[in-house]
Every structure is written in C-alpha cells, then in structure tokens.
Amino acid sequence: MAVRRIVAIVLPQLACELVKQRGPVSPSGKAPLAVILGGEEDRRAALAPQPEREPQAPAAVIDVVDDEARRYGVRPGQKVVEAAALVAHLAIHRVTFAEIDAALGRVAEVALGLGATAAIQLGEQGAPRAGAARASRAPERAASEARSPWGDGPYDTVWLDITGASHLVGGEEALLGELGERVAALGHRARLAIADGPRLAQALARFGAHADGGGGAEAPIAPPGKGAQAIGPLPVQALPVEREVASFLVRLGVLRVEDLARLPRAQVAARLGPRTADVMELLAGRDPVPLLPFEVPRLLEEEVLFDEPIESAESLLFVLRGMTSRIASRLAARGEACGRLNVAIAYDRSIARLRLGEREDDGAAALLEDDGRGPSLRFHVDMPVPLSDAGDLLRPLKARLERIELAAPAVGVHVIASRIARARRVQLDLSRDRSVDPDSLPALLAELSAEIGQERVGILEIADAHRPEARSRLVPASGEAAMTRASAAARARAVADRGAAEQAEGADAPALEPARLLAQPIPLGRVGRGAIVAVDRHLYAIERLSFVMRIDAVEWWTPTPASRDYARAWLVSGSPSGKAAPARLGELRPPRDGASASSCGEAWIYVDRATGEAFLQGWCE
C-alpha cells in the first residue's frame, strides 16, 4: 500500500494580497498595510454609502500585516491606535472571512490539476474550520482565534493529496515547482511542503527554513515515514498547542520539537492541554487526519469590493485584469473554457439613487438596475467559441468597458464565467516552425462583438435558394456555426469549380453570379438595348443585354412568389467631348472588348415578369 503524501500550500500574506488585488492600498501606493479580518456583516457594510461608513474603531485589533509594516514594528495583535502611533501613514483595510474562503477555494481548484483531492479544511480529527462553526462564535473570539497558529486559524492553508501522482510530472520536486507557478499566477506568494500527513506538511511549510514562493528544491520534503525527523528542528510553535503552552515550554528551555520529543511522555502529556493526543501522534510521525474534499463550483465567480469607491475606467480595468487572470488559471486547471462573462458593477447608493432612472440604456445588454442589493450596472459578453486564455477573456471586456460611462462611483465588481465547456486540445504541429494559435480568431470575434454588437459579427453561410440575394446569410460565429462551415465551404468550392469549367469553355464567358449585391435593388423601369437608366444620380446607356436565367414562381407558398428573368447588362456612360463621367465606388470598369465608351460596367439586373419592371441588383466583375 502506498504511503499517503500530502502537499500543504500555506499563504502567509493572503489577506494583504487580497487587498492589493482591489487596487492601490493608498494614494501613493507604497504605504505599509495592515488588515483586519471581519465577518459577513462587514461585507454588507462595505457596500453601504460612503458617508454612512464608520471609520476603523481605535479598539479594533490588527490580524495581518505585510512586510513593509512589519519593518516599522507593526505586529498582529496590536490595536489600531497603537499601530497608527508607530506608523502615521499606515493603511488599514478590512477583509471578510468570505473573501478568505473564496481565495482558498481558488487555490484548491488550481491545485486539483496535480492531485486527486484538494481541501481547505480537515476532517473530524483535525481542527474544524467549517463556516457554520465560525459564524456561531462571537466576533471578538473569532478574530483572536484567527491570529492563533492552531485551533481555528489562521485560514491560510490548502492541502493536496498527491499519493501516487507525483511521478506524472517528474517527481515531487517538479510537482512543487509546477504548483508554485500556478499559485503565483493567482497573485499569491506560497510556502509549500510535502509530508505523510496534512498537519506535518503544514508545520514544515509554515515554520520550515525555506524561502517564500515554494520553489522546487528550496521547499522541504519529508521522506516517506520520516515525518518525526523532519519536524524535529522546527520550533515548538509548529505543534498544535495553545499559545500559552508554547510560551511555557520556551521558558523551560524546550525550544524545538525534538527537545520536546526527548522528554518523558507522561510528563509531557500533563502539560500539553486539550490537544495532547494530536501532539503525541505528530511526535511519533503519525498524522492520520483526513481531508474534507473541496467541491469545485460549476460556475466560476470572482468578486472584489473596494474600500474607497472608484470612478475611472482605468481602475476598473486594472481590477478586471486580475479577475480574468484568476478565472483563466482556474479554467486551465479544470481543462475547460467559458463562453460568457457576466459582469456586475455595484454603484455607490447615495449617488446612484439620484441618477437611477435618468440614464438611458447604452446597449441591449448593459442595464442600470436595482435588484434589492443596491444599484448596479450589468452586462455580459458572449464568446463565439469558449475561451480560456486570460488575454482573450480580457479583450472583449476592455472593449465593452471603454464604451460604458459609469453612472456613479463603483464600490465593487462581480464577474461570473458561465457556459462552461471542455477546452479544445490542439495537436502539436511538427511540420512547421511556428504553430498558429487556434484562439486568435475567436478572440478577435469576441472583441468585435463587444465593440460593434454581436448581431453584426458572424459567418457567411451558403443557403439553398434560387434567388441570388438569398443564397448567403450572416449567422452567429458560434460553435454551431463552425460545424456547418465545412459543408458551406464544400458548396462554395463546387460553385467555384462550376464557374471555372464554364469559363474554360470560352474566355469571354462571364461568371454566372454577381460579385457584389446591393442591399436594396434600384428600380430602373422598363429596359432594353439603348435604354437610358439612372443609377446613383448618373445616367447610363444599356449597350447590350445578355440573358442568364429565369426563375418561375419561386417560393410559391409565400404571399409574394418571385418570377424573374435575370440578365447581364453592359452600362456605358460618357459625354459628347469624350471625357469620362466619374465612376462611383469602383462600380464601373473599362470595357473588355474595345468599347469606345469612356466608362462602363457590367451590371446584374432582373425583370419582374409580373410588372415588366427592371431592377439593378448588383455588379459583376
């Protein structure tokens, strides 16, 4: 039986990274950062009007600080007033537990591409981290436990079961390197470690002597069955003991785990408190705690709330760039792509309430509405083909955002990736030096659809019809349309081969179909050889007519069946002095057989047999 191997992904700066993903933490962008962890009620307060928000209470306690604030002496556990006394320009932000759980879920989702099971919480034998249990506690107790190294927090670890899977990527060191790159793509700095159990791996990742980032050989890897020896050099704080117990052991001179392991077990058990059984298991190198599998959501959601409302499209674009990058990383880990992005921009209520109803809709998909959670601007962007690259997802959003004017300052952005489908796998092409990106055209079509409208972008499809103007139509550039492209191309090749064969019979034989059809046929009246017709404010004489075909009672089941005679007409135009009249839009061209007219062109006309009236329908080449 294979020994269980678990990877622990510890994100020591997770809360600070979530704040920085919203945008600059201060006007200068370089201020030290401190974070206060809050509950769901703080999330609702974040969307409240700015004048109604209360400033950070001086008695509030800081939970997380970044490296810059730590250099100034700010530490977790300090009150806001104490930290502000140390650093006058300290930026203090709030992160909710829901945002923490969502970020851990994204990391777990990305990690699932390299292992069988990912988890953001342990089973019954480990520390419970369920949201219901956390919400039932008093807010002040939840905050203090969030700063505890064990018990209910901190919430900064994702576990991945890689038992029997590391050889697929070249070994455990290569797996850690690949996993570190994937987590870095989400914008997080991670510490990685591998051991026989989740708590052993977490202790190695959190307290091991390795550089941040979890790169390959620098990350600690405990050999199978050697977990006790691997955690021996770690400080006693690496064990699941209370802070007071760890302080007591340090005062006694027990600084490392191996020092504690050499003491008599009976005396040690009397001093470890309620987690004695867990500590004894770890000292023996055993860690049987199960993982609670993380359930991957079907829809991918990304949400960012702003502490200060923003009004510029550039700031929103900065946030959307990070959101699409995280969505792309999650899609790549799942081997999927998305066909639609739904965007909701939450407005500041106090300002948007004055403007709600006064702003007209600027597009069929962009609406200013109030759904009970506050006014917001909602729109969606459809992809012609499901895409998964971060740049391809951002381009249509950028084109759409540039056309939208915000009705009020934005306090949050919510993006949902829907219409999830399996990503296309392109076979490697070894016959050419450079392969063609198969998503370049779909990405361009998505950007054009967002820029000029989805109904104006599509694929010309050949239809089975007798009337020339009905033989092609514009269909949406979707996957379904792409399936019919092959048959349409085959019919087009058949038409081209037929025209080539007819031209091979005689060099003077023109093509059977017009090169360009007019949007609306132009009435010419009754025509014949030598008749004068008016086209676009110019007079032309019909030099000759050549009958092409007749259609009789086409679409007879409709109220207006068509009975027409189609012909090619040679139009000439000139003045008595021999100077040429200006040709319009390149519609006329020099004669092929030495005609003396100064300008001429071959037109495609038809005569309605019911009325005898002729119509100019297009031009031939």
Low-confidence stretches at least 5 residues in length (pLDDT < 50)? Answer: 40-55, 126-152, 211-217, 359-367, 480-484, 505-511, 575-598
* Helicity level: 25-40%
Name the beta content range: 15-25%
Shape: elongated
The Cα radius of gyration reads 36 Å
Biggest sheet strand order reads 15-20-19-18-17-16
Structural class given helices, strands, pairing?
alpha+beta
**Total helical segments:** 20
Mean pLDDT metric: 76
N-to-C span? 77 Å
Say how many strands there are.
20
- Quick one: biggest sheet? 6 strands, antiparallel
Q: What can you tell me about this protein's structure?
A:
The chain has 621 residues and is an alpha+beta fold. It is 31% helix and 25% strand. It contains 20 helices and 20 strands. It has a six-stranded antiparallel sheet, with no helix packed on it. Strands 8-12-9-11-10 form a five-stranded antiparallel sheet. Strands 5-6-1-7 form a four-stranded antiparallel sheet. A hairpin with a 5-residue loop joins strand 19 and strand 20. Helix 5 crosses helix 15. About 15% of the residues have low confidence.
